[in-house]
Fold:
Amino acid sequence: MATPHNAEINRKAKEDRFQGHDYYNIDELLNEDHLLARDAVRTWVKQEVSPIIEDYANRAECPTHLFKGLAEIGAFGPSLPAEYGGGGMDEIAYGVIMQELERGDSGIRSMASVQGSLVMYPIYRFGSEEQKRKYLPKLGAGEFIGCFGLTEPDHGSNPAGMVTNVKDDGDAYILNGAKMWITNSPVADIAVVWARDEEGKIRGLIVEKDFKGFSAPEIHGKWSLRASITGELVFEDVRVPKANVLPEVASMRGPLSCLSKARYGIAWGAIGAAMDCYDSALRYSLERTQFGKPIGQFQLTQKKLAEMITEITKAQLLAWRLGTLANQGKATPGQISMAKRNNVNMALEIAREARQIHGGMGITNEYPIMRHMMNLETVLTYEGTHDIHLLITGHDVTGLDAFK
Amino acid sequence: MKSLVCVSKTPDTTSKISFTNDQSALDTGNIQFIMNPYDEWYALVRALELQEAQGGSVTLINVGPAANDAIIRKGLAIGAEKAIRIEADPQSALFVAKQIAGHAKAENYDIIFLGKETIDYNGSEVGGMIAELLDLPFISYASHLEMNGNTATIHRDIEGGTEVVEVETPFVVSAAKGLAEQRIPNMRGIMMAKSKPLQVIQQAEAGDLAVAVHFEAPPPKKAVTLVDPENMEELVRLLHEEAKVI
Ligand SMILES: Cc1cc2nc3c(=O)[nH]c(=O)nc-3n(C[C@H](O)[C@H](O)[C@H](O)COP(=O)(O)OP(=O)(O)OC[C@H]3O[C@@H](n4cnc5c(N)ncnc54)[C@H](O)[C@@H]3O)c2cc1C
Structure:
């Protein structure tokens, strides 16, 4: 095979030449809807995300115009019923959509995860009919942006320790406290906030952006998820009408069931980021020549590539099986933890190896690798850290709680 | 407007093309098939826009085996309301044109849309043949189409410029870049497509006048030879002795 001149490769780097990888013919396990959904989102990402993402990430700015596009394509709550603004699809379709979004950028996938799984889902699952009719169609259409407030400055891995609280005041609750690390918060129209009531129970509240005493300052200086906006939620005697309290849940089961939904999506999403790194590394290794040969001909490069595709294939099978269980309503939180932890770590390791294959070029934004690698540091930590998920599995198999 | 949009399947442009051992047919083993982009991005979308603006219907038609249903579903997900597949393994443009014309004859479509070519063999033959078989006008390479009552004003791409033609319905038109903008199916469209009718009909008797018997891949490209800008004599020698162009 003729190898193009090395300068030629560098010129071509910016165009998105991504191709999917399916070493075990896993596509045969997917149905027509899944394949159509995946191709649609892949095309959308190539048109809308790839051309702009390096620039937004570089400037640490959130491409908020993409909320509308994500809504149009149907990326918000694809597995929620259509009458409430969702797509009426199954869990595997939701998974492949997240995979393709994260192939573009973890921050873009986060925009969709938060809106669909952490804002629309709790309103759908625990909200009143009135709340569903009021908020879900607008969220599904991208007219409203939502955020999810669970983590606090002093309570991250241990959210049940939260101090944000509500006090009964007739037809309203008075909300006080602060949330930290909240994706979308500075641009959100509504926040689903978890707070402790006077009986010590965890309640979910829908807080609208213009409620008095509520502010959402941005957190600056992130080296990760730079194209996603993150902020705080600060509540100073905010009056939240009782009509805005989610009636159907009063415990940690509320936020945890949302997290299960989002973590499930991350287990798929991470495969997308890994695949993008592998795809770029594979192409680079065939085009880049050193010592008179394509670098893909050296055994050490092949070891990296072979291990990458092996790990991607294992992660795909894990996600597919988890999706099948989720479709049957049988996926347990422990199973979701295992897949989130394994797949995100797999993606991060692949990003690091892929970075090496790209040599010096790999550290620039000519290639997506460093962006994915830095993004994945957040993905490894949010929605339950890598270690916390390990403890969940440990708890599951031993029956012994190692958290405290 | 009552429109018929002809859609074909074609290998994805990134597919590696190889042939069966006796070189008599394309080896479809590892090929990813897609809907022909000229059909999907331009012909189908312009037909949908006309329907949205002034009512009517958009029907898809494909001549091919059941494996093509995936491509047809994508067309339904983008917005066509129903589809017809004529069960066949087509070997020539004439065969395809006869099947489509056979269906269209009884249906009185106002406009029959197709892409200016399918990007596999780039034959550009089917449209003209359908028009001939139905005795309809054929406007090829349309990059712009406006309707005013039953009259269409169509811009055709011609060498170095544009030709503007007017034509009354019914007619056959082939779509070039510019006729419309690609629409990506959304999740709702994908779910709705499942309940839209896809009717499979048997092929009509139609012989092939010509059949392909042998394929050959082009010779592999040679590596680029770089010549020092100072060394014009070497460049001349290479062009003369190796490339044999001067
Ligand atoms: C960019 C970004 C976006 C985010 N978006 C959101 C959002 O939208 N909504 C939201 O609510 N939260 C969000 N988070 C918060 C995220 O979920 C938390 O950061 C995460 O849960 C970890 O909490 P922490 O940062 O307080 O770390 P800590 O809990 O302080 O953990 C620090 C370290 O200690 C370890 N550790 C903690 N407890 C144990 C233990 N028992 N045993 C062993 N090790 C332990 C952890 O594994 C970790 O390595 C986001 C975070 C980031 C970075």
About this structure: Residues A 114, 148-151, 156-157, 181-183, 225, 230, 378, 381-383, 385, 387-388, 391, 403 surround flavin-adenine dinucleotide (CB under 6 Å). The interface with chain A takes residues 14, 69-70, 73-74, 77, 184-188, 190-191, 193-194, 220-224, 226 of chain B (CB under 8 Å). The longest helix of chain B spans residues 37-54. The two ends of chain B are 57 Å apart (CA to CA).
